Please model this.
Amino acid sequence: MRKALSKIYTALIFIFLYAPIVVMMVFSFNDSKLRGKWVGFTTNWYVELFQNPEIIAAVRTTLIVGVVSTIIATAIGTVSAIGISELRGRKRSVILNINYLPVLNPDIITAISLMGLYGFLKMELGYTTMILSHIMFCIPYVVLSVLPAVETMDKNIVEAALDLGATPSYAIRKVVLPNIKNAIFSGALISFTLSIDDFAISYFTSGNGVSNLSMTIYSMARRGINPSINALSTIIFVAVFVFLFLSNRKAIFGKGETNTFMPQ
Model:
């Protein structure tokens, strides 16, 4: 009985989480702009999606900002995590607490603070300020993702590499980074996801003519959501699902691989 209840409870959680997504995907094929009534099947919204310059421009901006900020934030966050792992005592606590601030702060506070900073520095709002803002709020998440991997890594292999004549930079590139690559990849995925999902910070730090996907959807919401957004969301969801499926499939089959050495 208890086992059956746990299965029902788990099923209800998944239904609660994914039912809205399923509804959105179904209505992306609805031959009507009405969101609560099924009229008929059509793929016109997918055709219109690729013919809508506003949505295409927003997707392009989102991807450019997301990719650039993810690469830079991942690089800075990884180096920072390696450096923090070597600190001890009060210095380490202070730096970690500072790193937690952007994570704990509400986005609206961070957004207004950044807008005020750019105004104080007399920087024109646009692509540059949006990318800088995304890099800023993504770095702490990369640090939080990479630091545990660095902490749990066997320090003896680094010391062995240094004893064998490797320079510190060579040891980091050839020993440390390969051992924490999964954590780096996780941090990069988190950064990219946060960048695509962000609205508040992008809204306050972007200039005229610069609008990412979340800002475009927000502006559409006030005059009615275009069903093409349902089509775009469906494409994004399917792409992410396929990516996760292939990644997990590779991980599962990779575990079964064994190295065999033929005798000479």
User: Anything to note?
Assistant: The chain has twelve helices and no strands. The radius of gyration is 23 Å. Residues 52-219 form a domain with the MetI-like fold fold (CATH 1.10.3720.10).
